[in-house]
Design goal:
The complex is a heterodimer of chains A (457) and B (337).
Chain A lengths: L5 H21 L1 H28 L6 H16 L4 H31 L3 H32 L18 H20 L4 H21 L1 H4 L15 H6 L1 H10 L1 H5 L4 H44 L1 H11 L1 H6 L4 H27 L9 H15 L4 H29 L8 H8 L4 H16 L13
Helix pairs in contact in A: 1-2, 1-17, 2-12, 2-15, 2-16, 2-17, 3-6, 3-7, 3-15, 4-5, 6-15, 10-12, 16-17, 16-19, 17-19
Chain B lengths: L1 H39 L6 H21 L10 H30 L3 H23 L12 E3 L1 H8 L7 E2 H23 L1 H11 L1 H6 L4 H26 L4 H18 L4 H19 L3 H7 L18 H15 L11
Antiparallel strand pairs in B: 1-2
The chains are: A mainly alpha (457), B mainly alpha (337).
């Protein structure tokens, strides 16, 4: 049973009242846009928090797992392009089969050849010539695929299923990549691991950017299907018009003129449809967030969670007690990455487009880490809180900075060069805020705003 | 024979010279990272931004000198502004240490916490740079751009292939040799350098022998500031200055430092060149080279390119991962200055 302390209730209240505040001041549409991104950020943060907060496994590859989730959204929901499959499907099939053969051959050599030097030489020879052969089939196939109607297609397309399935598939994709990374890198010390995961996430993104047959690369995939109704359909649906009329009946009844009334109603319907769409997204996302939150908490309180904490706090002791530290590290790394992958698929679902070049480490790795640290590592509610607060301040930093600069330079003329320069660079102040928040939290509240509960069990 | 010379010129022009200059920039950067790692014992993610900051100050003063019509003739004005940039970078390093890193050092925090802290510092410096100079691409090299132009070389030697030598490349190589010589001399011969090596080898023992840790740290930041500013400026001079580039540069720099063996200065330098050359060699299209060397009957038809240039960045990481798997301590065993 989850029980919240008083300060935790306070945090929840603050989060909710922030959105009501923005809703009242900047409009409900803005508030919901921020809320949606906050929920997605919170899920990402929970994913990182599970590996870092529970077990102390650092994961700087957030960006790569998000991109894998995004790829899943494309591959699941985009309608298949038959022509591409026809011209390139066979070549791709052959090259993948050869790749699998190559991997098996390397594994076989690793098992049978005992002398280390021979093994290296044999392996490098096989890999070199194997890749040469694979390249031949592969480049032909991809070239053909990319030539199919390059303006709108030029890639394999997807399965044409509802995009909501991609949330699960995205998690699986990210988990698969994380499994490979974990197998390779998890033995490293934590700061090496940070750098390696950061680097591998860059490799993942650069593959997505340049393999156009798979993800359309820098040409982006647009027009992904939504899991929620479109505004234009809502505006023509009778039940929606009735709903809006019913909700605003008192306001509408005050207007006597018929054409005026119709005008006001139309405006209300257009506004309402936008809000309805965002609200449906918010509800979907909230459901996912609560499910993940529930299971994350359950896992943390379980014996498994206790074992993870034991491993985090003293690896040697846990090892001596017979816990398989390497295996558990791998498991928790994969679980954390999978949750991040789910968030990545949700992110693409919300945007309706996939832009591989948009994945930058500053925005998609480091900000998420700031959320984890600020919220409180090891506490799921803290992770959600961190995601909400940091994303909120990331968005609201610009208006706030404009306000502050205008107040500070109120004595200067509007054409003053310094003032203009400062106002031009308003978008960059958010980086300053993020850095300062992180530094202040690390200094004065190193366990985060909502710290992990000390459990004596 | 002519064909052979031509092929050599192709290699020189497209691989060796760019490799050496890019490698020098990486080596200087990696040396800075390695110093922080060996003395302060954390991975400094802010290093790229420190480089960028140094380059920015140099650019600002270059503009100032240009407006005052002070120049160095054929050499870029940036060289005149470089000392001021170095001083500013050193001040930045020492301020960030005093206000941020020092606290955690006294607390004896674990390296991961310090790495997180350095990410905070990275954000702050990043914001300062963008607020001051914006995000535009800035070209600030002036003076004579080429020492040897491709056309002139063709006329001079009568070969088909031209050899272009940018002055920024020569300056890069020259300054790197100077700085590396000085750094290694400092570490090996001076008393402060020796105390730094002792400190990085065994902190407790160094403290017992009366080495003042604050002084060692102070000297380290000075060296890091010099290296970072020079590396950042040279990179900006060679390519062009763009604030966003430096964050991406952090990763190859880390790769260089780790491949060479993090904590080992010599390893960092070697690692820089290894990474630079492999990035260029793996992504270069060797068609031209083989056309000259091989008889026309077996000339290659494709580009003879191992990976497309888009993957330049991925190459350094693949090497990093391979090295970590085969030899986790790097080419030269790291951890000690």
């Amino acid at each position: 049973m989850m029980k919240f302390e008083r300060y935790e209730w306070l945090a929840i209240t603050i989060m909710i009242s922030l959105f009501i505040f923005v809703g009242l001041i900047q409009g409900w549409s803005v508030s919901l846009v921020i809320l949606n991104m906050c929920i997605i950020s919170a899920i990402m943060t929970m994913g990182v928090n599970i590996s870092w907060g529970y077990a102390g496994v650092i994961n700087f590859g957030v960006m790569g797992f998000l991109a894998m989730g995004g790829l899943a959204a494309v591959l699941v929901s985009y309608p298949p392009i038959a022509e591409s499959w026809q011209v390139g499907g066979r070549g791709l099939g052959i090259s993948f089969a050869l790749l699998i053969l190559l991997v098996i051959a390397v594994m076989y050599i690793n098992k049978t050849v005992i002398q280390k030097r021979n093994r290296y030489i044999l392996n490098s020879l096989i890999i070199f010539f194997g890749i040469l052969i694979i390249r031949h089939f592969y480049l032909n196939a991809t070239h053909n695929i990319e030539d199919v109607n390059p303006a709108i297609a030029g890639f394999l397309g997807g399965l044409g299923l509802p995009i909501i399935f991609s949330w699960i598939v995205g998690g699986l994709f990210a988990a698969g990549v994380a499994f490979v990374i974990g197998k390779v890198a998890l033995g490293l010390r934590s700061d090496y691991l940070a750098i390696v995961t950061l680097g591998i996430s860059e490799i993942v993104v650069s593959v997505l950017k340049h393999e156009e047959w798979l993800s359309r690369g820098v040409k982006n995939v647009i027009g992904l299907k939504r899991p929620v109704p479109y505004e234009i359909d809502l505006q023509n649906a009778d039940w929606f018009i009735n709903l809006i009329t019913y909700l605003n009946s008192s306001k509408l009844n005050n207007i006597i003129d018929v054409s005026d009334r119709q005008q006001v109603l139309n405006n209300l319907i257009i506004d309402g449809s936008g809000i309805f769409v965002k609200l449906s997204y918010a509800i979907l996302f909230l459901i996912v967030m609560l499910i993940i939150f529930y299971f994350a908490n359950k896992a943390q309180l379980s014996p498994w969670g206790r074992m993870m904490r034991a491993i985090r706090d003293n690896e040697t002791a846990a090892n001596a007690m017979g816990k398989d530290v390497v295996k558990q590290h791998l498991i928790i790394f994969v679980i954390g990455a999978a949750i991040v992958g789910v968030a990545g698929a949700m992110l693409v679902t919300l945007d309706g487009l996939f832009t591989p070049s948009g994945y930058r480490p500053l925005r998609f790795t480091f900000i998420i880490w700031i959320m984890v640290i600020v919220g409180g590592s090891g506490n799921n509610l803290g992770a959600i809180f961190g995601g909400f607060v940091i994303w909120f301040s990331w968005i609201e930093a610009a208006p706030l900075t404009t306000f502050i600069i205008n107040q500070l330079t109120v004595g200067l003329e509007p054409t003053n060069a310094l003032k203009l320069h400062l106002l031009d660079s308003v978008p960059y102040f958010r980086y300053l805020f993020m850095g300062l928040i992180l530094l202040l939290i690390l200094r004065y509240r190193p366990k985060g705003i909502i710290p992990e509960k000390v459990r004596h069990s | 024979m002519i064909d052979f010379l031509n092929s050599i010129i192709v290699l020189l022009n497209f691989i060796i010279i760019p490799g050496i200059s890019y490698g020098s920039q990486l080596a200087l950067g990696a040396l800075g990272v390695t110093f922080v790692y060996a003395i302060l014992r954390f991975a400094n993610f802010a290093h790229g931004e420190i480089m960028s900051f140094g380059a920015m100050i140099t650019i600002l003063f270059t503009w100032f000198f240009q407006s005052q019509n002070i120049g160095l003739g054929i050499l870029p004005t940036a060289l005149l502004a470089l000392p001021i940039g170095i001083i500013a970078t050193i001040i930045l390093c020492i301020i960030s240490d005093k206000f941020v890193f020092q606290y955690y050092r006294y607390q004896k925090s674990v390296p991961v916490v310090l790495a997180m802290v350095s990410i905070g510092v990275m954000f702050v410096i990043n914001a300062i740079i963008r607020i001051i100079i914006g995000t535009e691409t800035i070209k600030f090299s002036d003076g004579q751009k080429f020492i040897m132009k491709a056309k002139k070389f063709k006329v001079m030697t009568g070969l088909n292939e031209g050899l272009a030598l940018k002055s920024s490349q020569v300056i890069t190589i020259f300054i790197t040799i100077l700085l590396l010589t000085f750094t290694f001399w400092f570490l090996q011969k001076t008393k402060t350098g020796k105390s730094m090596r002792a400190f990085s080898d065994n902190e407790d023992l160094a403290l017992l022998s009366g080495i003042n840790p604050d002084r060692v740290v102070f000297t380290t930041w000075i060296i890091v500031g010099v290296l970072a500013c020079v590396a950042g400026t040279l990179y900006g001079l060679d390519k062009s200055y763009k604030p966003i580039i430096y964050l991406n540069l952090v990763l190859p720099i880390f790769a260089s430092a780790i491949v060479g063996g993090i904590g080992s200065p010599f390893g960092a330098v070697v690692g820089g060149y290894v990474i630079a050359f492999s990035e260029i060699m793996v992504t270069y299209a060797y068609k031209k080279f083989f056309v000259y060397l091989l008889p026309s009957s077996i000339e290659p038809t494709g580009l003879v390119q191992l990976l497309s240039t888009d993957y330049k960045f991925a190459v350094s990481f693949s090497i990093l991962v391979i090295v970590l798997l085969i030899r986790p301590s790097g080419i030269f065993k790291g951890k000690v200055l």
